[in-house]
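quick one, 105 residues, struct below
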Amino acid sequence: MAWVVLVLAGLFEIVWAYAMKLSEGFTRLTPSIITLVFMILSFALLAYAMRTLPLGTAYTIWTGIGAVGSFLVGVFILGEPASAMRMLAAVLIISGLVLMKLSSS
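---
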């Protein structure tokens, strides 16, 4: 159950990062509220998952989901560049996440 909660926390991190971008420096009300709500939810779920998962594993997985997910949102929704170097970086992050998961059995 902690892994499901952790993945959900990571997905919420993607939502709040995207909403923060849309808030234009917290100058737009609705995206600013969405940012704060999903940030709180993401942190709360991370804290819940950390009750049973090791700190290093939980935090690494959470930030990795957020980083790769935000990268994908940037590329596919915001039209940011998807250079070979950026794609390689995302693959390396995912590789690290898989290794972290495998090492925490």
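Helices lie at 2-22, 29-49, 55-76, 84-103.
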